[in-house]
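Let us practice reading a record.
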Amino acid sequence: MERWRAEFHRLLQRPQALALGTRYFPHVSVLLFLLDAVATAGIIWRVPYTEIDWVAYMQEVEGALNGTLDYSQLRGDTGPLVYPAGFVYVYSLFYFLTGGGGKVAVAQVLFAGLYLLNLLLVTSIYSRVARSLRLPPYILLFLTCTAYRVHSIFVLRMFNDPVAMLLLHCSLLCLVRRLWLPTAALFSVAVSVKMNVLLYAPGLLVVFLLTHGWAGTLPLISLCALLQVALGAPFLLSSPVSYMRGAFDFGRQFLYQWTVNWRCLPEWLFLHRGFHTVLLACHIALLAAFIVLRWTRFDCYM
């Protein structure tokens, strides 16, 4: 501890070294973590909570807790339940911890804890690869104190994205440590909370193939699939069709009123199938480019 204090004192006299020196990633991580913890507490204290989905989440899991296992019958104020079984389990826990969702302040504190844990995971991942990728410590600033939208998603709106990303970052930390089975298992659990995590699947598949080949990758994929079946078992045994349609609806139409990134577009264009097709084509093209030009350069991430 004394050595760390002396090192911090010395580095504070040399801010350029602290910002640019790769070896100081842990020091900057600790400093920013403490600052961000204070900032997060300040946001909860000063910024009003925004009700968007929290009440609906509680209504959806309340139905499951009351014994309704048919996904088509699980609904909230914002519509039907559209997330896989992992979401139900996680938010059932929140339901009990917050008195049925009524203790919003308690929920915000819980999500603040999730935020700080997620921050630790992300900085651990970056610290693990910082030297090989020559990453300067100052990039951590953009992941912490300046990320107001991330704070908002965690502690002001309490969406399910934070839980899914926390599990995903656990998976990625296992990945950079080459713990293959935990990587696959945690990735699958993250998908069970929110399907958006599947966007990481192509990159993860490339890593598995480069490290294990098809023979070693198939068992890892099978583990992911088995976990999905196990987590969804109560709902699959009750009403398999409604569960698959509700939890894994890849054709679901998103509402313009909830978009943030595409608010610049007129509503008719946002809802047009042609726009969706163009986005998908661009995504596939970028994936192909990364696979050919970046991901297959084995040393760039391992």
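A brief commentary: The two ends are 31 Å apart (CA to CA).
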